[in-house]
Each structure stands twice: as structure tokens, then as C-alpha cells.
Amino acid sequence: MTDLLFRDDTYLKECEARVLGVNDRGGIVLDRTIFYATGGGQPGDGGSMEIEGLGSVEIATTVYGDDKTQIIHVPAEPVNVREGANVLCRLDWQKRFAHMQVHTGLHLLSAVLEYPVTGGQIGAGQGRLDFDIPDAGLDKEEIADEVNRLIGQDHAISEQWITDDELTAQPELVKTMSVKPPMGSGRVRLIRIGDVDLQPCGGTHVASTAEIGTIAIPKIEKKGSRNRRVRLALVS
Known about the structure:
- It is a single chain.
- α2 packs across α3.
- The chain folds into two domains: 89 residues, Elongation Factor Tu (Ef-tu), domain 3, CATH 2.40.30; 139 residues, Threonyl-trna Synthetase, Chain A, domain 2 (Threonyl-tRNA Synthetase, Chain A, domain 2, 2-Layer Sandwich).
- The strands form four sheets. A six-stranded antiparallel barrel has the order 2-3-7-6-5-8. A four-stranded antiparallel beta sheet has the order 9-10-15-14, covered by helices on one side. Strands 11-12-13 form a three-stranded antiparallel beta sheet.
- It has four helices and 15 strands.
């Protein structure tokens, strides 16, 4: 298994690790990592590795292996990596932090618009949520004002863990209709934003809402008779 250091500290920018192996597609498996793997609408991290005997190697993205217990670091170009080599991982922190800001902002958006979420996507500086809303009439400025009000209250973001059975007994915690929280390991991670929001999530987040900065809602799109796509963008 790969030790997921980003779960304990999302602000780690570097770490030392060791190569466990390389898969049949050239992806590098480490014993520990700060790189978040693609999942839950959040892109995998990129950055670089200083690999013993090779020098600097650019990492284009990061994904989960087939069994979900290992994280695969995908190099931008094929490299011949030796098993057991020591590695210094360096995260593309600017992009990761933007993902963290947007991800936390989208949690606040789901708290403002209390409708079932049918989909979502996170980018560096912008993202979106799709909502199951029977009627239109959403106001971009009103939504942005309310999200920015919550951001300005500087709510702390924390995590807690509950069992699969506890989550099953509290279905109201699950906001997403299309993507269910990962269950089967016996416990599920929840992200809490002060007293504003609590929901299952495996992604990376800022430590407080004030770190998001100001957001805008640039566009609301109709994607079906009941589906509304609400886009969120970082302004500052």
C-alpha cells in the first residue's frame, strides 16, 4: 500500500519516499506520497521527483491503481526507474492549492443550494456542481454573495471518521446522487466546515474558508428539465 501523506497534512509540499515498483504502463509506485490521485471530481496532482540515479522527472498526473491500494505517479515521459530508488517528491503547489480552494468553495456552494448534487468537477481556479433542481430562477449574484459571506466568516475545516454503518444510518450526509462515498473499508471520512456543512469527501481542502478568497458565479446552465450546472470561479 502507498501511505497517503496528504490525508494527514494537505499542506505538505515535499516528501522523501522509496520506489516500490513500476507498473506495465510506466507508472511509478512509491511507499508514501503527497500526490493526490484523481478522484471525486478532483484532478490528480502533478509536480516532479528527484529520483536517485535519474535526476529530476516531471510527473504529469497521479491516479489510483486497479486495486485502489496503490497510487500511480504518471511521468510526462517514459523513464527507467529502479525499484528501491530513493525519491524526493515535489508537488506543483500552486495548482494543488487552487484545487483545495475550489473544492472547499464547492462544499460551501452545496450548503447554499440545498439540492441533490448530480455531478461536479474541480479545476485550478474554477469548478462546477450540477444540481437536481425542478425549477429555474437561480440568481448568480445572490448565490455568490451568500457563498462569499460564509467564506468571510472564516470557518475552520476539519475531518472526522465514521463507520460504514453510521453513514448508512445517516443518508442525509450524502449529497451526491451519481457518486457514492467509498465504502467497504469499514470507515468513511467526513469533511466538516464549521457548523455550515458536513459531508463525506476524500479530497484535499484548505484549513479555513478565509483561504478560499473571493469567488464569483460566472454562469448557470440548464442541462435538462431538472439539471442546473452552477459554475464557481476564484476571483482573488
